[in-house]
Amino acid sequence: MTLSFKTCSSSSPRLTPKSIAGAGDDASQFFHHKTSYRAHTTTLFFILVSLSLFGFISLYYSPNTIYRAAFFATTRPAKSRFVSYVINTQDSNHHQLSNGSRRIRAEAVLWPGWEILVIVSPEEKAKPPPFPGENYICFYPNGEKSTARFAAILPFSNRASFRCSLPGIYRHHHPIPTPILASSKRFQLSPETRWPDLPLWNFVVFEAISTETDVVLLVKGPNRGLGSNKPPESFRCVFGEESDTAIRTAVTSSVQEVFRCSLPNITIDTPVKIYLEAVATGKEETKTVPSVAYYSPKRTLVEPREKSLLCATTMVYNVAKYLREWVMYHAAIGIQRFIIYDNGSDDELNDVVKGLNSEKYDVIKVLWIWPKTQEAGFSHAAVYGNDTCTWMMYLDVDEFLFSPAWDKQSQPSDQMIRSLLPSDQSMIGQVSFKSHEFGPSNQTKHPRGGVTQGYTCRREEDQRHKSIVRLSAVEHSLYTAIHHFGLKREYEWRVADTEEGVVNHYKYQAWQEFKAKFKRRVSAYVVDWTRVSNPKSRDRTPGLGFRPVEPEGWAHKFCEVEDLRLKILTRKWFGYPVKNGYRMAWQR
After folding, report:
1. Burial 474-509 (b: 16+ CB within 10 A, else e)
2. Which of 43, 84, 85, 542 could form a disulfide bond with 290, CB atoms 3.0-4.6 angstroms apart?
3. CA–CA separation, 297 vs 306, rounded Å?
4. Is position 257 within any domain?
């Protein structure tokens, strides 16, 4: 490629034979013009080179570059899988050493923001965390190390997890070496230590669920985009790490991030690593997605409980201030159990859940740490809740189901939601309700009485919908579009009229609350707010750019219809008079 540089300036004369002659054959003036031209060209050249170099370095060191590359990178051939992706379980130095330190067998995943999630292997018999006074360290090649901060005990598998910062020296490595977790700074690396490749958060098997008839794998990466599902015969499930003894079974469904596998035909008594394998086609070799998940036939998702008729589930991040209002309202109109998928909150969510439990509300918090996996989490909830719930309502904590027919009721009833659903004999497997999207309603901070009291002005047009689904009617693939599920062929899907039931979605709140959305989006197929992509998507806010900068007149936006119905109703049901007005039951 040939690069041409030109400079054009209205203040600089153009050098032509005529202009040179007009200078009176003054050689020094000609030399001045010629030198000025070269100086402009040289300056422009160095500016372009500097910008190119800066762009290259920024792209090279950006974590987003690595994450995006995972979708397009070719995975290692299956024959080398266990060298590439498995921590050195065959090394002997995971035992207690004479200096008091020991290596802990674990798997790891590179997380957004250059963090590494380290998950202790179920094969680790000596459970490490959290021992008071004991230090945990992530070790890297060439003597680099970082503190391993205890994160959480993962649900279902009961595995301890840690977070380590990736040292800067390795942020330009492709691939990145997997760290070794040890219980002391005095741990000594063996010269024979191998450093397998570190899997990326967006290309990994991250969860496995055992059912009575099969295994559900949750996998990021192979089905890369919405609607781009590869056929199930393109994959196999692999139980075990040794290529000559591993058991392979058929994949019966491949939709979004959910893959269903046939059970192995032999008895497996202990947890084994489970992988997803892409079957060889044509000249391509068989390839394997790295995994941090284990198959455990004896593991149950839930403790035995009385089966509830109506449950609700949602995925949350830092919504403690909203949860009491959402739970207390929906419990009063018929929801019997709430399953809260916590996507790594660091607010007072635990305290709020404990408080609700102490008030006899049945609220279960499920730690769900995986980023951008809302669809997979909702599919997980369909399996998780199947043994304890008949119907499951999928609703965000800023969404409230409401029927205009309830206006005349002086008190809420636990039969209200049930009245919106078909009979047990009906073949309707899902009922959806259209959404009304409310604007900031001139609020500048979170309303003291809650969202139902503070946000009263909405857009006129109905926006999208949310659903209550009969879990036994959900199709085998567990397909969900967040707003609804795919159903088995024999079941029907019904959309309710807005006069029968509607969802009040308090979406565009006071700016101080709304701008928190820029921090993350939980859906796997919706781009983050800060990414300059899909500006006209319905998942974006009209008139809002790609930075958390308050638009002019935000407090008055999205206000086309004043709608006081739910405010008046909830005040009648849950409000009580105080000296300076009234107070809602959920206020603390």
Report:
1. bbebbbbebebbbbeeebebeebeeeebbbbbbbbb
2. 85
3. 23
4. yes
Residue 89 burial (C-beta neighbours within 10 Å; 0-12, 13-18, 19+): middle
Domain that holds residue 151: 106-182
Q: Is 541 inside a domain boundary?
A: yes
| Cα gap 361→338, rounded to integer Å | 8
Greater pLDDT, 114 or 538? 114
Residue 18 predicted with pLDDT over 60: no
Q: Which two tokens stand for residue 408?
A: 């005349």
Query: In terms of domains, do 362 and 281 share one?
Result: no
Q: pLDDT value at position 189?
A: 84
Q: The domain spanning residue 461 has which CATH number? A: 3.90.550
Low-confidence winner among 45-59, 209-223, 429-443, 478-492 (lowest mean pLDDT) = 45-59
Q: What is d(CA 177, CA 189) in angstroms, rounded to the nearest whole number?
A: 14
Give yes or no for a contact between 179 and 87, defined as CB atoms under 8 angstroms apart. Answer: no
- As a whole number of Å, the end-to-end CA separation of the chain is 68
How many whole angstroms separate alpha carbon 406 and alpha carbon 462? 20
CATH code of the domain in which 225 resides:
2.60.40
Q: Tell me the C-alpha distance between 588 and 576, whole Å.
A: 13
Q: Is the pLDDT of residue 22 over 70?
A: no
Of 43-57, 375-389, 419-433, 488-502, the range with the lowest mean pLDDT is: 43-57
Is 434 a member of any domain?
A: yes
Mean pLDDT is lowest, of 130-144, 196-210, 505-519, 560-574, for: 130-144
pLDDT at 151 over 50: yes
Q: Is 34 a member of any domain?
A: no
pLDDT band at 30 (very low <50, low <70, confident <90, very high): very low
Helix then strand then coil, % of the chain, to nearest 5: 25, 25, 50
41/19 Cα distance (integer angstroms): 20
By C-alpha distance, which of 383, 367, 542 is closest to 474? 383
Smallest CA-to-CA distance from 64 within 110, 109, 107 is with: 110
Nearest to 243 by CA among 80, 76, 74: 80
Are residues 537 and 447 both part of a single domain? Answer: yes
Q: Do residues 109 and 201 make contact, with C-beta atoms less than 8 angstroms apart?
A: yes
**Domain match, 403 and 525 both:** yes
Burial-class residue 5 by CB neighbours within 10 Å (0-12, 13-18, 19+). exposed
Amino acid at 48: L
Say yes or no to pLDDT of 56 above 80.
no
pLDDT at 445: 94
